């Protein structure tokens, strides 16, 4: 691992303009108009640097999809220009796509020790054989990357080692806030480096790209230290109960609160959930979490203690189907059984799109007999993102000429843009962008929206990848709504049935009246064969004709049409067989099988 140790010393020298190449372009390929999938390219002439490379969790209608990553075909096509990927912090929405993207780009990766360690763990989990070039950086350091100079500023967030990143180009300085808040009484680090941000403002910031997540929330985001007092009150008020706390595994500050409070109230801590165990083990090894060995116990040891001596720290705050808390709520967890003597604390707010999952989990927990604390007004969770007053402070410190809100749904971007105008930035200098649009700076320093670059979303389902525009989701939606009807028929060279028709149904209305409808469906298939024998249709249209005839039968009985899949096997005169199936329609998507041992190659 390469360690960069070039400290910031005094005023930075300005980079000389490069007159031989085109101007500066900012290219957001993800993270605008959505929560997650953050990735932005900064291009000057024939060189590019990239900030973050994250994933997005699937929306409810994305049936069976594990996660969504940005389409980086533009970067793949220009990978020889890329000088490095700079990471702001270690959350999934900023590093989660790296195992799929980095092997295709093969460029250096810059980040703080914790962030790079989390990336390394992700590559191991994905069983990717690719070995990255890690360049370890710290807040206050600067690095050179081609024509670019990049620097790192410490910011407060819900995970340690979070950074804002400035990139100095021949056209001016770009400041990317990363995910941040201004926490005056932060726990575990020194808080956001306001002096460094003010210094950048004095030197001149051409463009500020700033976190917009909480742009609708007035005032200041509460400090993480608020949660400490809330936990103490909960532990004090429920001395006779086992306490189960669900939180994001990556929120190491929250985990530290749990450890400190549990020790103070003479309780032992059981860790549940694969990601929780992984994060805590890594954080302890790197020194980001301080917890005595004797405080942590296994679930087997916990069974030997009185329930009021135990705290369970688990995953599942977002209602993830196979997380620790959800399995407990269903009574399916192998070690933990919940009941009337348990208190469950959900120390998180639902990510947009997860509200129903969380609500269902809470209902099941109550049905188990537990008491549950989950209300947002309970001070059991605070956001890691800046609210409006903090966003104003950043704008006043950075004093950018141009402003581009990032990291948020579209309404968040619009509200943040309005705030920037209230802070004195001219309306013509505020750009509300969409993924794929380019913000171009001419030689005169003026900015305008340029050509649109190909961007989008790539769906990840196990070992398969497919573009969002493809037929994958459409097919799954049809199957989920109307079910599946399959027919297997064996015909001879004269196009007559050689064996009885086999009909199978899954999730289809046909299954409700199978006995009465089967003869009609067999008759419909027979009519399709008669049309073929009579020469009314060509052999290549047999499958289409069978589906058409069967739909006519079903339409007389039901309004819902299942997906019909005929499979026709033809036995020729010499005894050979040939299977005729529905021809596969060419999908709009590109689908690539990914080896479990290797990342997809370009």
Global geometry: globular
Mean pLDDT, to the nearest integer, reads 85
Radius of gyration: 29 Å
At the fourth level of CATH, the homologous superfamily of the largest domain is Ribonuclease Z/Hydroxyacylglutathione hydrolase-like
CATH topology of the largest domain: Metallo-beta-lactamase, Chain A
CATH class of the largest domain: Alpha Beta
Helix/strand class = alpha/beta
Strand order of the main beta sheet, please? Answer: 1-8-7-6-4-3-2-20-21
Task: Characterize the largest beta sheet: strand count, sense, and whether it forms a barrel.
Answer: 9 strands, mixed
What are the low-pLDDT stretches, counting only 5+ consecutive residues below 50? 2-11, 16-21, 583-602
Beta-strand content bin: 15-25%
> How far apart lie the N and C ends?
25 Å
Q: Count of DSSP helices?
A: 16
Second CATH tier, the architecture of the largest domain: 4-Layer Sandwich
Any key phrases for this structure?
602 residues, alpha/beta, Metallo-beta-lactamase, Chain A, Rossmann fold, Ubiquitin-like (UB roll), 3 domains, nine-stranded mixed beta sheet, six-stranded mixed beta sheet, disordered N terminus, disordered C terminus
């Amino acid at each position: 691992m390469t360690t960069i140790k070039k400290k910031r010393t005094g005023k930075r020298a300005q980079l000389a303009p490069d007159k031989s190449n085109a101007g500066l372009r900012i290219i957001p390929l993800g993270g605008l108009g959505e929560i997650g999938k953050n990735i932005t390219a900064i291009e000057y002439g024939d060189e590019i640097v990239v900030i973050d490379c994250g994933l997005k969790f699937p929306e409810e209608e994305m049936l069976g999809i594990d996660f969504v990553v940005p389409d980086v075909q533009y970067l793949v096509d220009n990978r020889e220009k890329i000088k490095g990927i700079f990471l702001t912090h270690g959350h999934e929405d900023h590093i989660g796509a790296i195992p799929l993207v980095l092997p295709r780009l093969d460029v250096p990766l810059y980040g703080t020790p914790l962030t790079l360690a989390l990336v390394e763990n992700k590559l191991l989990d994905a069983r990717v054989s690719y070995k990255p070039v890690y360049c370890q950086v710290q807040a206050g350091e600067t690095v050179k990357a081609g024509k670019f100079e990049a620097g790192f500023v410490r910011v407060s967030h819900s995970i340690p080692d979070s950074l804002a990143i400035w990139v100095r180009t021949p056209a001016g300085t770009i400041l990317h806030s990363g995910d941040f808040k201004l926490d005056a009484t932060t726990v575990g680090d020194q808080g956001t480096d306001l002096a460094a941000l003010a210094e950048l403002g004095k030197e001149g910031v051409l463009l500020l790209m700033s976190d917009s997540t909480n742009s609708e929330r007035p005032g200041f985001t509460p400090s993480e230290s608020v949660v400490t007092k809330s936990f103490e009150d909960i532990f004090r008020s429920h001395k006779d109960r086992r306490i189960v706390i669900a939180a994001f595994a990556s929120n190491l500050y929250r985990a530290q609160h749990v450890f400190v409070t549990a020790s103070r109230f003479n309780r032992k801590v059981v860790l549940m959930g694969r990601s929780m165990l992984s994060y805590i083990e890594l954080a302890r090894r790197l020194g980001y979490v301080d917890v005595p060995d004797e405080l942590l116990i296994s679930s087997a040891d916990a069974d030997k203690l009185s329930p009021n001596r135990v705290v369970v720290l688990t995953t599942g705050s977002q209602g993830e189907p196979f997380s620790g808390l959800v399995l407990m709520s269903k009574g399916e967890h192998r070690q933990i059984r919940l009941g009337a003597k348990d208190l469950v604390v959900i120390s998180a707010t639902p990510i947009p799109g997860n509200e129903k999952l969380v609500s269902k989990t809470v209902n099941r927990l109550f049905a188990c007999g537990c008491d549950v604390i989950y209300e947002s007004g309970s001070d059991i969770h605070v956001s890691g993102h800046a609210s409006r007053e903090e966003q104003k402070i950043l704008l006043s410190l950075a004093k950018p000429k141009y402003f581009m809100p990032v990291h948020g749904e579209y309404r968040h971007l619009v509200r943040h843009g309005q705030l920037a105008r209230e802070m004195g930035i001219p309306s013509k200098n505020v750009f509300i962008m969409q993924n794929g649009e380019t913000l171009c700076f001419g030689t005169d320093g003026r900015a305008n929206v340029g050509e649109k670059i190909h961007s989008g979303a790539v769906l990840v389902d196990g070992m398969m990848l497919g573009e969002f525009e493809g037929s994958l989701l459409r097919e799954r939606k049809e199957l989920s709504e109307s079910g599946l009807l399959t027919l297997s028929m064996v015909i001879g060279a004269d196009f007559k049935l050689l064996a009885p028709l086999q009909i199978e149904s899954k999730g289809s209305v046909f299954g409700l009246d199978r006995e009465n409808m089967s003869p009609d469906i067999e008759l419909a298939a027979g009519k399709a064969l008669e049309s073929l024998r009579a020469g009314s249709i060509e052999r290549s249209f047999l499958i289409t004709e069978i589906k058409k005839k069967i739909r006519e039968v079903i339409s007389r009985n039901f309004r819902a049409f299942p997906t019909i899949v005929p499979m026709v096997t033809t036995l020729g005169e010499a005894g050979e067989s040939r299977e005729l199936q529905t021809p596969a329609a060419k999908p709009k998507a590109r689908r690539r099988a990914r080896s479990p041992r290797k990342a997809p190659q370009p």
